[in-house]
Automatic annotation (TrEMBL), chain A:
The entry's keywords: Dioxygenase, Oxidoreductase
InterPro entries in UniProt: Intradiol_dOase_C, Intradiol_dOase_core, Intradiol_RC_Dioxygenase, Protocat_dOase_a
Intradiol ring-cleavage dioxygenases domain: residues covered: 54-82
Species this protein is from: Bradyrhizobium nitroreducens
PANTHER family in the record: DIOXYGENASE, PUTATIVE (AFU_ORTHOLOGUE AFUA_2G02910)-RELATED (PTHR33711), PROTOCATECHUATE 3,4-DIOXYGENASE ALPHA CHAIN (PTHR33711:SF9)
SUPFAM superfamilies reported in the protein's UniProt record: Aromatic compound dioxygenase
Keyword set includes Oxidoreductase: yes
Source taxon at top rank: Bacteria
Pfam family, one: Dioxygenase_C
Protein name in UniProt: Protocatechuate 3,4-dioxygenase
NCBIfam families on file: protocat_alph (TIGR02423)
TrEMBL record, chain B:
Region (Disordered) location: 1-47
Annotated protein name in UniProt: Protocatechuate 3,4-dioxygenase
GO molecular function, one term: protocatechuate 3,4-dioxygenase activity
SUPFAM superfamilies: Aromatic compound dioxygenase
Phylogenetic classification of the source organism: Bacteria, Pseudomonadati, Pseudomonadota, Alphaproteobacteria, Hyphomicrobiales
Pfam families, A to Z: Dioxygenase_C, PCDO_beta_N
Domain Intradiol ring-cleavage dioxygenases intervals: 100-128
Source organism of this protein record: Bradyrhizobium nitroreducens
Entries under InterPro entries matching the protein: Intradiol_dOase_C (IPR000627), Intradiol_dOase_core (IPR015889), Intradiol_RC_Dioxygenase (IPR050770), PCDO_beta_N (IPR024756), Protocat_dOase_b (IPR012785)
Keywords per UniProt: Dioxygenase, Oxidoreductase
Length: 208, 262
Protein backbone atom coordinates (compact mmCIF):
# COMPACT_ATOMS: atom_id res chain seq x y z
CA UNK A 1 0.00 0.00 0.00
CA UNK A 2 1.34 3.46 -0.85
CA UNK A 3 1.22 6.18 1.76
CA UNK A 4 -2.25 7.65 2.25
CA UNK A 5 -2.77 11.21 1.03
CA UNK A 6 -5.52 12.11 3.46
CA UNK A 7 -6.93 15.11 1.76
CA UNK A 8 -10.26 16.22 3.13
CA UNK A 9 -13.34 16.28 0.94
CA UNK A 10 -15.08 19.53 0.17
CA UNK A 11 -18.34 20.05 2.05
CA UNK A 12 -21.28 19.17 -0.18
CA UNK A 13 -23.33 22.01 -1.59
CA UNK A 14 -27.02 22.42 -0.83
CA UNK A 15 -29.57 24.72 -2.42
CA UNK A 16 -29.81 28.25 -1.05
CA UNK A 17 -33.57 27.74 -0.93
CA UNK A 18 -36.38 30.24 -1.48
CA UNK A 19 -35.58 32.24 1.67
CA UNK A 20 -31.95 33.00 0.88
CA UNK A 21 -32.76 36.69 1.36
CA UNK A 22 -33.08 36.28 5.14
CA UNK A 23 -29.42 35.55 5.49
CA UNK A 24 -27.89 37.45 2.62
CA UNK A 25 -30.24 40.38 1.88
CA UNK A 26 -32.53 40.66 4.92
CA UNK A 27 -34.15 43.86 3.67
CA UNK A 28 -35.65 41.86 0.80
CA UNK A 29 -37.08 39.33 3.27
CA UNK A 30 -38.86 42.27 4.88
CA UNK A 31 -36.84 43.20 7.94
CA UNK A 32 -33.93 45.26 9.14
CA UNK A 33 -31.36 43.58 11.38
CA UNK A 34 -27.73 44.39 10.57
CA UNK A 35 -26.02 47.74 11.04
CA UNK A 36 -24.17 47.23 7.77
CA UNK A 37 -25.55 45.46 4.73
CA UNK A 38 -24.10 44.20 1.49
CA UNK A 39 -25.79 45.37 -1.66
CA UNK A 40 -25.93 45.54 -5.43
CA UNK A 41 -24.17 48.90 -5.52
CA UNK A 42 -20.43 48.41 -5.95
CA UNK A 43 -19.47 52.02 -6.56
CA UNK A 44 -18.75 54.87 -4.22
CA UNK A 45 -18.50 58.51 -5.35
CA UNK A 46 -14.72 58.03 -5.60
CA UNK A 47 -14.70 54.93 -7.79
CA UNK A 48 -12.76 55.33 -11.02
CA UNK A 49 -14.29 54.24 -14.30
CA UNK A 50 -17.40 54.33 -16.41
CA UNK A 51 -20.61 53.93 -14.39
CA UNK A 52 -22.79 51.15 -15.71
CA UNK A 53 -25.98 49.40 -14.75
CA UNK A 54 -26.06 45.65 -15.25
CA UNK A 55 -29.61 44.51 -15.71
CA UNK A 56 -30.97 41.10 -16.55
CA UNK A 57 -32.97 38.03 -15.73
CA UNK A 58 -32.38 34.37 -15.14
CA UNK A 59 -34.83 32.16 -17.05
CA UNK A 60 -35.86 28.59 -16.25
CA UNK A 61 -36.45 25.82 -18.78
CA UNK A 62 -39.86 27.25 -19.72
CA UNK A 63 -38.47 30.75 -20.28
CA UNK A 64 -40.01 32.03 -17.04
CA UNK A 65 -37.86 34.43 -15.00
CA UNK A 66 -36.68 33.16 -11.63
CA UNK A 67 -38.12 35.47 -9.03
CA UNK A 68 -36.20 34.06 -6.09
CA UNK A 69 -32.69 33.96 -7.51
CA UNK A 70 -29.61 35.57 -5.98
CA UNK A 71 -26.63 36.69 -8.03
CA UNK A 72 -23.20 37.72 -6.87
CA UNK A 73 -20.68 39.44 -9.08
CA UNK A 74 -16.91 39.71 -8.69
CA UNK A 75 -14.89 42.01 -10.87
CA UNK A 76 -11.71 43.96 -11.37
CA UNK A 77 -11.63 47.74 -11.18
CA UNK A 78 -11.36 50.06 -14.16
CA UNK A 79 -7.59 49.44 -14.27
CA UNK A 80 -8.12 45.69 -14.53
CA UNK A 81 -6.96 44.98 -10.99
CA UNK A 82 -8.78 42.75 -8.52
CA UNK A 83 -8.86 43.94 -4.93
CA UNK A 84 -7.18 40.79 -3.62
CA UNK A 85 -3.60 40.06 -2.52
CA UNK A 86 -3.12 37.35 -5.17
CA UNK A 87 -3.52 39.93 -7.95
CA UNK A 88 -0.07 41.40 -8.42
CA UNK A 89 -0.72 42.94 -11.83
CA UNK A 90 0.34 46.48 -12.62
CA UNK A 91 -3.01 48.28 -12.56
CA UNK A 92 -3.65 50.70 -9.71
CA UNK A 93 -5.53 49.23 -6.76
CA UNK A 94 -8.47 51.15 -5.29
CA UNK A 95 -8.95 50.10 -1.68
CA UNK A 96 -12.46 51.52 -1.56
CA UNK A 97 -13.65 49.42 -4.48
CA UNK A 98 -14.19 45.87 -3.22
CA UNK A 99 -15.37 44.66 -6.61
CA UNK A 100 -18.10 42.45 -5.22
CA UNK A 101 -21.84 42.78 -4.84
CA UNK A 102 -24.97 40.72 -4.52
CA UNK A 103 -28.54 41.19 -5.69
CA UNK A 104 -31.80 39.34 -5.40
CA UNK A 105 -34.23 39.30 -8.29
CA UNK A 106 -37.40 41.38 -8.06
CA UNK A 107 -40.19 39.23 -6.58
CA UNK A 108 -42.56 40.26 -9.42
CA UNK A 109 -40.49 40.80 -12.55
CA UNK A 110 -37.41 38.71 -11.81
CA UNK A 111 -35.18 41.63 -12.78
CA UNK A 112 -31.69 41.71 -11.27
CA UNK A 113 -29.64 44.92 -11.29
CA UNK A 114 -26.17 46.01 -10.24
CA UNK A 115 -24.69 49.50 -10.15
CA UNK A 116 -21.00 49.22 -10.89
CA UNK A 117 -18.25 50.29 -13.27
CA UNK A 118 -17.02 48.65 -16.40
CA UNK A 119 -13.89 46.70 -15.47
CA UNK A 120 -10.67 47.07 -17.39
CA UNK A 121 -9.00 44.35 -19.43
CA UNK A 122 -7.11 41.88 -17.25
CA UNK A 123 -3.57 40.63 -17.67
CA UNK A 124 -3.34 37.08 -16.40
CA UNK A 125 -0.21 35.60 -14.88
CA UNK A 126 0.79 34.05 -18.17
CA UNK A 127 0.89 37.56 -19.57
CA UNK A 128 -2.20 37.12 -21.72
CA UNK A 129 -4.75 39.88 -22.06
CA UNK A 130 -8.29 38.90 -21.13
CA UNK A 131 -11.30 40.86 -22.31
CA UNK A 132 -13.08 42.90 -19.64
CA UNK A 133 -15.55 40.67 -17.85
CA UNK A 134 -17.58 40.23 -14.70
CA UNK A 135 -17.71 36.91 -12.87
CA UNK A 136 -21.20 35.79 -11.90
CA UNK A 137 -22.36 33.23 -9.33
CA UNK A 138 -25.99 32.14 -9.20
CA UNK A 139 -27.90 30.42 -6.40
CA UNK A 140 -31.61 29.79 -5.86
CA UNK A 141 -34.22 27.26 -4.86
CA UNK A 142 -33.79 24.35 -7.24
CA UNK A 143 -30.12 25.12 -7.92
CA UNK A 144 -28.21 22.44 -6.04
CA UNK A 145 -24.77 23.90 -6.51
CA UNK A 146 -23.97 27.51 -7.38
CA UNK A 147 -23.58 28.19 -11.09
CA UNK A 148 -20.55 30.08 -12.37
CA UNK A 149 -20.68 32.13 -15.52
CA UNK A 150 -19.26 35.40 -16.86
CA UNK A 151 -20.54 38.55 -18.49
CA UNK A 152 -18.57 40.18 -21.29
CA UNK A 153 -19.42 43.47 -23.02
CA UNK A 154 -20.93 43.87 -26.49
CA UNK A 155 -18.81 46.94 -27.28
CA UNK A 156 -15.55 45.00 -26.79
CA UNK A 157 -15.73 43.02 -30.02
CA UNK A 158 -12.01 42.87 -30.71
CA UNK A 159 -11.08 42.00 -27.13
CA UNK A 160 -13.83 39.39 -26.95
CA UNK A 161 -12.64 37.78 -30.18
CA UNK A 162 -9.19 37.36 -28.66
CA UNK A 163 -10.29 36.31 -25.18
CA UNK A 164 -8.82 32.96 -24.09
CA UNK A 165 -11.92 31.91 -22.16
CA UNK A 166 -14.48 32.83 -24.81
CA UNK A 167 -12.34 30.93 -27.30
CA UNK A 168 -12.59 27.78 -25.18
CA UNK A 169 -16.26 27.60 -26.14
CA UNK A 170 -16.41 25.18 -29.02
CA UNK A 171 -19.57 26.50 -30.66
CA UNK A 172 -19.14 30.16 -31.64
CA UNK A 173 -22.90 30.62 -31.37
CA UNK A 174 -22.76 29.85 -27.65
CA UNK A 175 -20.20 32.58 -26.97
CA UNK A 176 -22.97 35.11 -27.39
CA UNK A 177 -24.72 33.77 -24.29
CA UNK A 178 -22.05 35.51 -22.19
CA UNK A 179 -22.21 38.92 -23.83
CA UNK A 180 -24.21 41.72 -22.23
CA UNK A 181 -25.64 44.23 -24.68
CA UNK A 182 -24.79 47.86 -24.25
CA UNK A 183 -27.58 50.39 -24.39
CA UNK A 184 -28.56 53.71 -22.87
CA UNK A 185 -31.51 54.81 -20.78
CA UNK A 186 -32.01 58.32 -19.45
CA UNK A 187 -28.38 59.11 -20.15
CA UNK A 188 -27.11 56.09 -18.23
CA UNK A 189 -25.23 53.13 -19.69
CA UNK A 190 -27.15 49.90 -19.23
CA UNK A 191 -25.81 46.46 -20.10
CA UNK A 192 -28.63 43.95 -20.53
CA UNK A 193 -28.15 40.23 -20.04
CA UNK A 194 -30.24 37.08 -20.04
CA UNK A 195 -29.10 33.89 -18.35
CA UNK A 196 -30.90 30.83 -19.69
CA UNK A 197 -30.64 27.80 -17.42
CA UNK A 198 -31.83 25.47 -20.20
CA UNK A 199 -32.94 25.39 -23.80
CA UNK A 200 -31.37 26.15 -27.17
CA UNK A 201 -29.94 29.41 -25.81
CA UNK A 202 -28.58 27.80 -22.63
CA UNK A 203 -25.93 30.05 -21.11
CA UNK A 204 -22.41 28.68 -20.89
CA UNK A 205 -21.69 27.72 -17.28
CA UNK A 206 -18.19 26.96 -16.06
CA UNK A 207 -16.72 24.27 -13.88
CA UNK A 208 -14.18 26.53 -12.23
CA UNK B 1 -14.78 35.08 19.84
CA UNK B 2 -12.91 32.11 21.24
CA UNK B 3 -9.36 32.35 19.95
CA UNK B 4 -8.43 28.75 20.65
CA UNK B 5 -10.00 26.29 18.26
CA UNK B 6 -10.60 22.80 19.59
CA UNK B 7 -8.41 20.16 17.99
CA UNK B 8 -9.96 18.49 14.97
CA UNK B 9 -10.40 14.89 15.99
CA UNK B 10 -13.65 14.16 14.26
CA UNK B 11 -13.40 10.69 12.70
CA UNK B 12 -15.88 11.71 10.01
CA UNK B 13 -13.09 13.82 8.58
CA UNK B 14 -10.96 10.73 7.96
CA UNK B 15 -7.73 12.53 8.50
CA UNK B 16 -4.76 11.31 10.58
CA UNK B 17 -2.83 14.46 9.84
CA UNK B 18 -3.38 17.57 7.80
CA UNK B 19 -1.25 18.05 4.77
CA UNK B 20 -0.02 21.60 4.80
CA UNK B 21 2.26 22.60 1.97
CA UNK B 22 3.17 26.28 1.84
CA UNK B 23 0.05 28.25 1.05
CA UNK B 24 0.06 28.98 -2.62
CA UNK B 25 -2.03 31.15 -4.82
CA UNK B 26 -2.27 28.77 -7.73
CA UNK B 27 -5.55 27.35 -8.93
CA UNK B 28 -7.88 25.46 -6.65
CA UNK B 29 -7.99 21.67 -6.57
CA UNK B 30 -10.41 20.39 -9.15
CA UNK B 31 -13.86 20.18 -7.63
CA UNK B 32 -14.95 16.59 -7.01
CA UNK B 33 -18.50 16.83 -8.31
CA UNK B 34 -19.28 13.25 -7.33
CA UNK B 35 -19.81 14.34 -3.74
CA UNK B 36 -22.10 17.23 -4.66
CA UNK B 37 -25.75 16.92 -5.64
CA UNK B 38 -26.20 16.84 -9.41
CA UNK B 39 -27.87 19.92 -10.90
CA UNK B 40 -30.75 17.78 -12.18
CA UNK B 41 -32.14 15.76 -9.26
CA UNK B 42 -35.75 14.86 -10.10
CA UNK B 43 -36.66 13.90 -6.50
CA UNK B 44 -36.18 17.58 -5.69
CA UNK B 45 -38.72 18.86 -8.17
CA UNK B 46 -37.60 22.48 -8.31
CA UNK B 47 -34.29 21.35 -9.78
CA UNK B 48 -35.89 19.97 -12.95
CA UNK B 49 -36.40 23.30 -14.74
CA UNK B 50 -33.48 25.04 -13.05
CA UNK B 51 -30.65 22.68 -13.98
CA UNK B 52 -28.33 23.30 -16.92
CA UNK B 53 -28.36 20.42 -19.41
CA UNK B 54 -25.17 21.19 -21.32
CA UNK B 55 -21.85 20.04 -19.90
CA UNK B 56 -20.14 22.63 -17.74
CA UNK B 57 -17.12 24.11 -19.49
CA UNK B 58 -13.99 23.25 -17.50
CA UNK B 59 -12.01 26.38 -16.81
CA UNK B 60 -8.46 26.33 -15.61
CA UNK B 61 -8.45 28.85 -12.78
CA UNK B 62 -7.35 32.30 -13.87
CA UNK B 63 -6.84 35.34 -11.70
CA UNK B 64 -10.63 35.87 -11.88
CA UNK B 65 -11.30 32.64 -9.95
CA UNK B 66 -8.27 32.64 -7.64
CA UNK B 67 -9.21 36.03 -6.24
CA UNK B 68 -12.39 36.88 -4.38
CA UNK B 69 -13.86 39.52 -2.11
CA UNK B 70 -12.08 40.30 1.13
CA UNK B 71 -14.11 41.11 4.23
CA UNK B 72 -13.13 42.51 7.60
CA UNK B 73 -14.51 43.21 11.05
CA UNK B 74 -15.66 46.60 9.80
CA UNK B 75 -18.31 44.80 7.76
CA UNK B 76 -19.89 43.30 10.87
CA UNK B 77 -21.75 44.55 13.92
CA UNK B 78 -21.07 43.36 17.48
CA UNK B 79 -24.23 41.21 17.72
CA UNK B 80 -24.03 39.69 14.25
CA UNK B 81 -23.15 36.22 15.57
CA UNK B 82 -25.69 36.25 18.40
CA UNK B 83 -29.10 35.32 17.00
CA UNK B 84 -30.54 35.25 20.52
CA UNK B 85 -29.85 38.97 20.88
CA UNK B 86 -29.58 40.45 17.42
CA UNK B 87 -33.31 40.84 16.86
CA UNK B 88 -34.59 40.69 20.46
CA UNK B 89 -37.29 43.31 21.03
CA UNK B 90 -38.77 42.54 24.44
CA UNK B 91 -37.18 39.26 25.49
CA UNK B 92 -35.35 36.20 24.28
CA UNK B 93 -36.57 34.12 21.35
CA UNK B 94 -38.51 30.94 22.11
CA UNK B 95 -36.66 27.67 21.62
CA UNK B 96 -33.74 25.47 22.60
CA UNK B 97 -30.70 27.64 23.15
CA UNK B 98 -27.71 26.32 21.21
CA UNK B 99 -24.21 27.29 20.19
CA UNK B 100 -22.98 26.23 16.77
CA UNK B 101 -19.24 26.25 16.31
CA UNK B 102 -16.53 24.75 14.17
CA UNK B 103 -13.77 25.50 11.76
CA UNK B 104 -13.62 26.43 8.12
CA UNK B 105 -10.69 24.51 6.68
CA UNK B 106 -9.57 23.69 3.17
CA UNK B 107 -8.99 20.25 1.66
CA UNK B 108 -5.44 20.21 3.01
CA UNK B 109 -6.79 20.71 6.54
CA UNK B 110 -5.50 24.25 6.86
CA UNK B 111 -7.78 26.72 8.60
CA UNK B 112 -9.27 29.39 6.35
CA UNK B 113 -8.76 32.62 8.31
CA UNK B 114 -10.75 35.85 8.15
CA UNK B 115 -13.39 34.48 5.88
CA UNK B 116 -17.02 35.52 5.99
CA UNK B 117 -19.55 32.92 7.18
CA UNK B 118 -23.23 33.82 6.96
CA UNK B 119 -26.09 31.73 8.36
CA UNK B 120 -29.86 31.84 8.33
CA UNK B 121 -32.65 29.65 9.62
CA UNK B 122 -36.28 29.22 10.60
CA UNK B 123 -37.36 29.87 14.18
CA UNK B 124 -38.10 27.15 16.73
CA UNK B 125 -41.54 26.59 15.19
CA UNK B 126 -40.16 26.15 11.67
CA UNK B 127 -41.24 29.59 10.40
CA UNK B 128 -38.94 31.93 8.50
CA UNK B 129 -39.06 35.67 8.95
CA UNK B 130 -39.64 36.16 5.24
CA UNK B 131 -42.51 37.82 3.48
CA UNK B 132 -42.92 34.82 1.18
CA UNK B 133 -43.17 32.25 4.00
CA UNK B 134 -46.83 31.57 4.84
CA UNK B 135 -46.46 28.49 7.08
CA UNK B 136 -48.97 28.65 9.92
CA UNK B 137 -46.37 28.41 12.71
CA UNK B 138 -46.00 31.88 14.24
CA UNK B 139 -43.28 34.42 13.68
CA UNK B 140 -41.24 34.95 16.84
CA UNK B 141 -41.16 38.68 17.57
CA UNK B 142 -37.71 38.32 19.12
CA UNK B 143 -36.05 36.27 16.42
CA UNK B 144 -34.70 37.46 13.09
CA UNK B 145 -33.01 34.23 12.07
CA UNK B 146 -29.79 35.38 10.48
CA UNK B 147 -26.26 36.19 11.45
CA UNK B 148 -22.68 36.21 10.30
CA UNK B 149 -19.16 35.83 11.58
CA UNK B 150 -15.61 36.19 10.41
CA UNK B 151 -13.38 33.19 11.10
CA UNK B 152 -10.38 33.83 13.33
CA UNK B 153 -6.81 33.15 12.27
CA UNK B 154 -7.28 29.39 12.75
CA UNK B 155 -10.53 29.26 10.76
CA UNK B 156 -12.71 29.02 13.88
CA UNK B 157 -16.19 30.53 14.04
CA UNK B 158 -19.11 30.33 16.45
CA UNK B 159 -22.55 31.72 16.93
CA UNK B 160 -25.46 31.44 19.34
CA UNK B 161 -29.05 30.82 18.33
CA UNK B 162 -32.13 28.70 19.01
CA UNK B 163 -32.56 25.35 17.35
CA UNK B 164 -34.74 25.70 14.23
CA UNK B 165 -37.85 23.57 13.80
CA UNK B 166 -38.74 21.33 10.87
CA UNK B 167 -41.36 22.62 8.44
CA UNK B 168 -43.49 21.40 5.54
CA UNK B 169 -42.81 22.39 1.95
CA UNK B 170 -44.27 21.74 -1.46
CA UNK B 171 -42.38 18.92 -3.09
CA UNK B 172 -44.47 15.87 -2.37
CA UNK B 173 -47.76 16.51 -0.55
CA UNK B 174 -46.25 15.49 2.77
CA UNK B 175 -42.63 16.66 2.48
CA UNK B 176 -40.94 18.10 5.56
CA UNK B 177 -37.51 19.64 5.87
CA UNK B 178 -35.37 18.35 8.71
CA UNK B 179 -34.25 21.09 11.09
CA UNK B 180 -31.37 22.89 9.38
CA UNK B 181 -29.28 26.03 9.27
CA UNK B 182 -28.19 27.50 5.94
CA UNK B 183 -24.52 28.46 5.59
CA UNK B 184 -22.82 30.71 3.07
CA UNK B 185 -19.01 30.66 3.00
CA UNK B 186 -16.54 32.62 0.85
CA UNK B 187 -12.98 31.34 1.25
CA UNK B 188 -10.15 33.31 -0.32
CA UNK B 189 -11.08 32.87 -3.98
CA UNK B 190 -14.40 33.12 -5.80
CA UNK B 191 -14.05 29.48 -6.93
CA UNK B 192 -14.36 28.40 -3.28
CA UNK B 193 -17.74 30.07 -2.85
CA UNK B 194 -20.16 27.64 -1.24
CA UNK B 195 -23.68 27.52 0.11
CA UNK B 196 -24.74 24.52 2.13
CA UNK B 197 -26.99 23.44 4.99
CA UNK B 198 -26.19 22.03 8.42
CA UNK B 199 -28.43 19.36 9.93
CA UNK B 200 -28.73 18.05 13.48
CA UNK B 201 -27.63 14.64 14.71
CA UNK B 202 -30.50 12.26 15.30
CA UNK B 203 -33.16 14.04 13.23
CA UNK B 204 -35.49 11.33 11.82
CA UNK B 205 -36.34 13.52 8.81
CA UNK B 206 -32.77 13.42 7.50
CA UNK B 207 -32.94 10.12 5.57
CA UNK B 208 -36.21 11.06 3.83
CA UNK B 209 -35.47 14.67 2.89
CA UNK B 210 -35.74 15.14 -0.90
CA UNK B 211 -33.16 17.95 -0.79
CA UNK B 212 -30.60 16.25 1.45
CA UNK B 213 -30.85 13.00 -0.47
CA UNK B 214 -29.87 14.74 -3.71
CA UNK B 215 -26.34 14.14 -2.40
CA UNK B 216 -25.21 10.88 -4.00
CA UNK B 217 -22.41 10.13 -1.56
CA UNK B 218 -23.40 8.83 1.88
CA UNK B 219 -20.26 10.12 3.57
CA UNK B 220 -20.70 13.55 2.03
CA UNK B 221 -24.27 13.59 3.35
CA UNK B 222 -23.12 12.53 6.82
CA UNK B 223 -20.62 15.39 6.86
CA UNK B 224 -23.54 17.84 6.76
CA UNK B 225 -24.90 16.46 10.03
CA UNK B 226 -23.57 18.28 13.10
CA UNK B 227 -23.02 16.13 16.18
CA UNK B 228 -24.02 17.23 19.64
CA UNK B 229 -20.83 18.57 21.24
CA UNK B 230 -21.48 18.23 24.95
CA UNK B 231 -17.99 19.42 25.82
CA UNK B 232 -18.69 22.76 24.22
CA UNK B 233 -22.08 23.12 25.90
CA UNK B 234 -22.56 25.66 28.64
CA UNK B 235 -24.09 24.03 31.75
CA UNK B 236 -27.52 25.41 32.63
CA UNK B 237 -27.44 27.61 29.54
CA UNK B 238 -27.14 25.96 26.11
CA UNK B 239 -26.19 22.84 24.21
CA UNK B 240 -23.60 23.00 21.44
CA UNK B 241 -23.30 21.48 17.98
CA UNK B 242 -20.08 21.18 16.02
CA UNK B 243 -20.03 21.92 12.29
CA UNK B 244 -16.79 21.99 10.34
CA UNK B 245 -16.82 23.19 6.75
CA UNK B 246 -14.29 22.14 4.13
CA UNK B 247 -13.57 24.42 1.17
CA UNK B 248 -11.49 23.52 -1.85
CA UNK B 249 -7.74 23.38 -1.40
CA UNK B 250 -5.33 25.49 -3.40
CA UNK B 251 -2.25 24.52 -5.32
CA UNK B 252 1.05 26.12 -4.59
CA UNK B 253 2.90 27.84 -7.38
CA UNK B 254 6.49 26.85 -6.75
CA UNK B 255 7.44 27.18 -10.37
CA UNK B 256 5.97 29.77 -12.69
CA UNK B 257 7.26 28.55 -15.99
CA UNK B 258 4.28 28.81 -18.29
CA UNK B 259 4.75 31.37 -20.97
CA UNK B 260 2.20 33.26 -22.97
CA UNK B 261 0.38 31.11 -25.47
CA UNK B 262 0.97 27.80 -23.69
Amino acid sequence: MPQPLNYLKETASQTAGPYVHIGLIPAMAGFDIFEKNFSNVLVTPNTEGERITLEGKVLDGTGTPLRDVLLEIWQANAAGRYNHPADRSAGALEQEFRGWGRAGSDFESGLVTFETIKPGAITDRAGRTCAPHINVWIVARGINIGLNTRLYFSDEEAANAADPVLNLIEQPSRRGTLIAKRGERAGKVVYAFTINLQGPEETVFFDV
Amino acid sequence: MNAQAPALRDPRLNRPEPLTPPLGDGGFFQRDRSIHPPAHAPGYKSSVLRSPRQALLSLENSISEITGPVFGHNDLGPLDNDLIRNYAKDGDPIGERIVVHGRVVDETGRGVPNTLVEFWQANAGGRYRHKKDTYLAPIDPNFGGCGRALTDDTGYYNFRTVKPGPYPWRNYVNSWRPAHIHFSVFGSGFAQRLITQMYFEGDPLIPICPILTTIPDKDALDRLVAPLDLNASTPFDSLAYRFDIVLRGQRSTYFENRTAGN
